[in-house]
Write a sequence for this structure.
């Protein structure tokens, strides 16, 4: 079975992430969406909330598994018996950092192959941080995230 890991912060998952994920699902038997547990960061959604939202919006993708991880990505990839790491590319400027990470991950684990999937041009300007900024000021985010995430974000900001 060909397993890939799609790691990230996913705070929250966006239509851009989903676009990359749906393409990855066509390439692998199983794609594990792995949410990074990073105690040093102050995310909007807890890891559990993020995983719940990802599960909700990936119901139509039968080969997706949602999980979280701590520590080094390459260790997690090995633990899961995965052959590839999926990363989305929105624009050229993403590539510099992503290539550096891919080289480092390969250095740490020669078996770890990073597969870059370009996002649809329509989502090339999306980022979770921009969407949070728009939502916190009451802007319309309906074109950028699935409805479940939109509702969760407005609910979150009502309570902030
Ligand atoms: O969605 P993000 O924040 O761009 O995802 C970054 C992520 C989670 C892929 C990266 O920070 C990561 O892999 N963190 C785990 C720690 C690790 O392995 N660091 C070395 C990377 S070369």
């Amino acid at each position: 079975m060909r397993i890939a890991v799609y790691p990230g912060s996913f705070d929250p998952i966006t239509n851009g992430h989903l676009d990359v994920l749906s393409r990855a699902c066509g390439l692998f038997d199983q794609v594990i969406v792995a949410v990074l547990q990073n105690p040093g960061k102050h995310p909007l959604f807890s890891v559990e909330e993020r995983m719940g939202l990802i599960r909700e919006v990936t119901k139509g993708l039968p080969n997706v598994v949602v999980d979280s991880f701590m520590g080094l990505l390459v260790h997690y990839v090995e633990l899961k018996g995965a052959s590839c790491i999926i990363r989305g590319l929105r624009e050229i400027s993403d590539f510099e950092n992503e290539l550096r990470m891919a080289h480092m991950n390969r250095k740490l684990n020669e078996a770890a192959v990073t597969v870059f999937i370009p996002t649809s041009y329509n989502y090339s300007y999306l980022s979770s941080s921009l969407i949070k900024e728009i939502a916190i000021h009451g802007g319309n985010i309906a074109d950028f995230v699935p409805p479940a995430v939109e509702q969760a974000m407005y609910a979150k900001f009502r309570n902030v």
Q: What stands out?
A: The longest strand covers residues 30-36.
